[in-house]
Design brief:
Blueprint lengths: L47 E4 L3 H13 L8 H10 L9 E4 L5 H16 L4
Parallel strand pairs: 1-2
Length: about 120
């Protein structure tokens, strides 16, 4: 696929055990409002976990998955687009950043603190 084809991904049959590959839609700006999130009316709280993995590590995993598929394949052009356009969450109180080497207990503690703060905001 050439550079001129970037973003025009053909629809095709599903990858081994996966979903059909479809056309990517242009990024649409969307900022959910707290009262529009599922469960907000019931007082439910949530926290996102951003798994911070270097693109080189992610690509090595993609190649390993092609050898022994356990997930749907991501075409190289799609992978490039994601790594070039992805903007990591910055200064988002509801997002916990998991980094390689972080113990699961530390992640759980950070999630509990984040959820506690969102339930009991500072005055």
């Amino acid at each position: 696929m050439g550079e001129s084809d970037r973003g025009n991904f053909p629809t095709g049959p599903p990858a081994a055990g996966g979903r059909p590959v479809g056309r990517l839609r242009p990024r649409q700006p969307h900022v959910p409002q707290p009262d529009s999130l599922p469960g907000a009316g019931a007082g439910a709280r949530f926290a996102g976990v951003w798994v911070d993995v270097a693109p080189e590590v992610a690509y090595a995993r993609l190649l390993a998955n092609r050898e022994r598929p356990s997930r749907s394949n991501v075409p190289d052009a799609s992978f490039r687009q994601i790594t070039e356009e992805f903007e990591p969450p910055v200064n988002k109180p509801d997002v916990i950043r998991w980094q390689p080497g972080m113990e699961i207990e530390e992640l759980i503690l950070e999630l509990e603190m984040s959820l506690s703060q969102s339930c009991h905001p500072e005055p």
